[in-house]
Amino acid sequence: MSDKIHELLNRNLQEVFGEGDAARRRAAIEELYTDDCVVYVPAGVLVGHDALDKFAGDLRATHPHFVYTPHGEPQALHNAGRLAWGSGPRGEKPDYTGLDVIIVRDDKIAALYVFLDSMPS
């Protein structure tokens, strides 16, 4: 199970939140997330593929040149996992960092909690 959790964390970061192509992003969401997924972000709670797809697309549009870079290795514990990451222009210090925590059911992400770190000014 830990290998699957590591795969889901890494693929979510790159193929959902890091993906600029809407069709590829939607295909990844359908493959990686349960139909009834719940995503908890600072701005609110998103339920289902359509809400996640809109959020990820809108977020991507605000900074299309940013890349997501894992900070360290993903960790898995039973049916949960976490991955720290940074986002910013390729090759530069991240503009912001965060931590994704997932709950897995039937080899898919059932819940995602996105924690954002405050960046020093």
From TrEMBL:
Residues 18-111 form the SnoaL-like domain. Pfam families: SnoaL_2. It comes from the Bacteria. Transmembrane segments: none annotated. Signal peptide: none annotated. This is Nuclear transport factor 2 family protein.
